[in-house]
Amino acid sequence: MKVEGRVFKYGDNVDTDVIIPARYLNTANPDELAAHCMEDIDKDFIKKVQKGDIIVADKNFGCGSSREHAPIAIKAAGVSCVIASTFARIFYRNSINIGLPILEAPEAVKNIKTGDIVSVDFAEGKITNKTTGKVFYGQPYPEFMQKLIADGGLVSSIKKNTK
Amino acid sequence: MGMTMTQKILANAAGLEKVKAGQLIMANLDLVLGNDVTTPVAVPEFNKIGKEVFDKTKIAIVPDHFTPNKDIKSAEQCKLIRDFATKHQIKNYFEIGEVGIEHVLLPEKGLVVAGDVVIGADSHTCTYGALGAFSTGVGSTDMAAGMATGKAWFKVPEAIGFEITGEFANEYISGKDLILHIIGMIGVDGALYKSMEFFGPGIKNLTMDDRFTIANMAIEAGGKNGIFPVDEKTIEYMKEHSTKEYKVFEADKDAEYEKVYKIDLGKIRPTVAFPHLPENTKTIDEVGKIKIDQVVIGSCTNGRMQDLRMAAKILDGKKVKKGVRTIVIPGTQKIYLQAIKEGLVEKFINAGAIFSMPTCGPCLGGHMGILAAGERAVSTTNRNFIGRMGHPKSEVYLASPAVAAASAIMGEIYNPEKL
User: Fold this and answer.
1) Are residues B390 and B374 in contact, defined by beta-carbon separation less than 8 angstroms?
2) Mean pLDDT, 10 residues at a time, over chain A (163 residues)?
3) Predicted model pTM
4) Cβ atoms of residues B226 and B215 within 8 Å
5) Which of B37, B66, B370 lies closest to A67 in CB terms?
6) Strands A2-10, A117-121: parallel, antiparallel or unpaired by DSSP?
7) Residue contact B71–A28, C-beta within 8 A
8) Minimum-distance CB partner of B41 among A22, A68, A90
9) What is the rounded distance in angstroms from the CA atom of residue B280 to the CA atom of residue B276?
10) A28 interaction partners in chain B (CB closer than 8 Å)
11) Residues β-bridged to residue B281
12) Contact B358, B66 (CB under 8 A)
């Protein structure tokens, strides 16, 4: 799978309360959640984001609450991939489980800024900053997770393997 | 190389003699938890799997976040999970009247004991490490899978050790100050993907309520779990609250820790985390004059008897500063009733505070005490992120019940030792 999009860059410790504030968690509807994605730190995000765009952030992206609404909101906003130096563990798990592609790639993060056009080839873990021409490689998924992703997420994987 | 306490529990749950850090395992679950925010996302995923629940006695559904239903959408979410619980005869579904804040309620109901493996679709599920259980927060899809299969996959975590010695210098210093101190020291990703293992001769000087508070905030350092050894206090607590059989696991002497921090409880000061991260800590001596508009005492972090007793002791015979909205929230109905019996509620009300039914309410900016732009709260809760308790331009300062109560009286963040 390959994706390409324009980058929205954020700093350290982007928490799930700013990805989707709890005041909107009285619904589980992905489109309603997406409408408020990132609004407490970037009011313009949802106005500007286009299908395929990429979020790039520094360390500990997705820290805080376990709300799966956070990766759901990002995915429903049209974001094709999140690249970060590190991810908080529950967010990491949730993203894999719901099929939001994420990559840990600290070197790439250092060399990508807002507005850059970036492409990602997941098979190779290859990240190309098309604006600067630089190429980076993200941490490959462990085999176990590759299988989960190939099965289409956790629920599909269970269905597939218990029949 | 030996195993840590966490690793031993995980090995046992996976049916393995030995596990090591980094290993991926499939573990049997003793309890799967969800609340009214996360369960509505889990139910459709569960339905896609198309199986029955693995064990209707080993699932707990606790509608505590937006309850009593704050609006129509919350009511619809709660109805969805109530219908699910009824359909699948979930034994531990807690309706209004029985419900409390999940991480205060479950130990009180005896649903978690030492040696258990628990996942919860709530990040503060790590609270049960206080009982010597492995428990960790997951998302809704993991909850759905757990309800269907009774299993979850884990990466066996590396460990950070905290060797605790001594005892707190005075009664105004508690577990909250210790965990805020630790988060300030290692940062909000200081324990990322790792277990936080507490041990040492000072553990015996921590009450069970202190331990719940400390384990509760392991997630605020990025930890997978926080865990305490089982001692006399743990056993006494479990005997009082549970009939479940417990298993005691002890870390091997040669267990591997990436790092061991030595902490003398006697040196811990009342500690406050400034906006907008729990790692932005200052001791009370460094705080300066910060005026406040609201105080919240409660939550899964500090809504237990010890917390309410301390707050009541400080507020007894005093008045909260005019204009400081002071909201006290017990963790469960049992705590609510006990607070009435002990006369704590009378003290709160006479001091000018309000005393609410159990709810997560204001902690996550849900309801029951939302902040306007520019307002500041001192709160005994666990997060002070941007917009956490309301307007993105409001501020939350995390502190202990003692500091919160003293601050309510003075109208500014205040040292309870000086009252």
Assistant:
1) no
2) 95 97 95 97 97 98 97 97 97 94 96 98 92 93 81 88 73
3) 0.97
4) yes
5) B37
6) antiparallel
7) no
8) A68
9) 7
10) 40-41, 77
11) B273
12) no
